[in-house]
Amino acid sequence: MTNAYKIAVLPGDAIGPEIMAQALRVFDVVRQHRDVEFELIECPFGASAYFSHGQAFPEETKVVCDQVDAILKGPVGLSHAESLKIPVEEQAERGAILPLRARYNTFANFRPIFLSKDMAHFSPLKPEIIRDGIDILLIRELVGGLYFGAKERGTNDAGLRYVKETLEYDEAQIRQVQRVAFEQAQLRKKRLHNIHKSNVLLSSVLWNEVLEEVRVDYPDVEVVHLLVDAAATALCLNPGQFDVMVMENMFGDILSDQGGGILGSLGLMPSACIGPDKAYYEPSHGSAPDIAGQNIANPYSMIGSVAMMLEMSFAMADESRAVWDAMRSVFEAGYSTADLSAGGSAKVVSTDEFGDRVMARLDELLAN
Ligand code: NAD
Fold first, then answer.
1. Which H or E run contains 288?
2. Distance 302 CA to ligand 1 centre (A)
3. Which residues does a 6 A CB cutoff place in the pocket of ligand 1?
4. Which residues of the chain fall short of a pLDDT of 50?
5. Is 146 helix (H, G, I), strand (E, B) or coil?
């Protein structure tokens, strides 16, 4: 029987539609070689949806997302100046991304920070630091903490404007994401870096207490505790020490972008956002308004998000592997997008041409 999957496609803003167009080609290639059907339903989401529908996450998009098997989301948002044209509550993160995460309780965000040996020259780090490449799985808690806590703005008794934001976690929220991280560590090198700030934050004290309870069920996993500030330095000086890392929401937001930095570009950062019943997939980066409309964005992060969807939502591990291999073969053949070309000898290709080369190789790989 043919497997059939429904996917909500949210192209997003700025470079979103450009890189999404390349990512969607993967579904065409896969369906040509496998007994599988993909129904793609495009929906408005983000700043463009605010301008066309008056809401960054319109009702019609919610209805589709509720029904599908998985969601593929492009980056959303505008430049700082353009964002000011949208009411604060409808700006992309507050109006679209956070409500999407909350709606499907996508508490576990998988952010692979990966650079094969053949791609090591893209990194700004020295070869003696990179050695055999970088292979880290950063797991970020995605629906709690400061980003989701109660917020308040006002003027205090002294007549000064003030703001109050709340960092709140309960032990169940902490436990569920830590379990995911331990399970991933078991599947990989059995080493888990726990990133926290318990020397200052009470939330990290509870986080660490829960971790001590959870680890009892994973005796084969070595736990290494590291303060988040020290982790930022260690990512630059010795990324090879990391395998799986787990951390709360805001730490993960910031450290994963640093992950893109040590790879050489945020364009190399796909991600998966996993909830109990639904998952959505998106690049880790934003909508890159500075390069929008020029056909120069790197679609690796968006195509990689499809690869993660194939594996994690549709159990198509072989096809997923073929997508990764196809992308790496393009780099290995000496091509790169503009973001990765600084100081190197790579032949620079456009967003579309990178997609052409990936799809041609994917076609070959799936035919064999
Ligand atoms: P950004 O991640 O969009 O861009 C940072 C830098 O990385 C820019 O120089 C950009 O050109 C580059 N870059 C990012 N992705 C790239 C790619 N695929 N190929 C080549 N270069 C790439 O961060 P920003 O400029 O701070 O934010 C822009 C907008 O994106 C803002 O409105 C922000 O709120 C939003 N944002 C959205 C998400 C999301 O949709 N999940 C995440 C982060 C930021």
1. none
2. 13
3. 19, 75-78, 83, 92-93, 97, 265-267, 282, 285-291, 297-298, 301, 339
4. none
5. helix
> Which among 317, 302, 281, 308 has a CA at the least distance from the CA of 106?
281
Using one digit for the tens of pLDDT, what is the confidence trace for 87-96? 999 999 999 9
CA-based angle 274:275:277, to the nearest 5?
120
Contact 196, 249 (CB under 8 A): no
For a substitution probing ligand 1, which of 266, 269, 282, 301 has the most ligand atoms within 8 Å of its CB?
A: 266
21-36 confidence digits (pLDDT tens): 999 999 999 999 999 9
Domains annotated on the chain, with CATH: 1-106+275-368 (3.40.718.10), 115-136+144-267 (3.40.718.10)
- Closest to 282 measured CA to CA, from 70, 4, 102, 2: 70
Q: What CA dihedral angle connects 208, 210, 212 and 217, to 10 degrees? A: -140
How many CA atoms lie within 13 Å of 116's alpha carbon, on the beta-carbon side? Answer: 10
d(CA 101, CA 278): 10
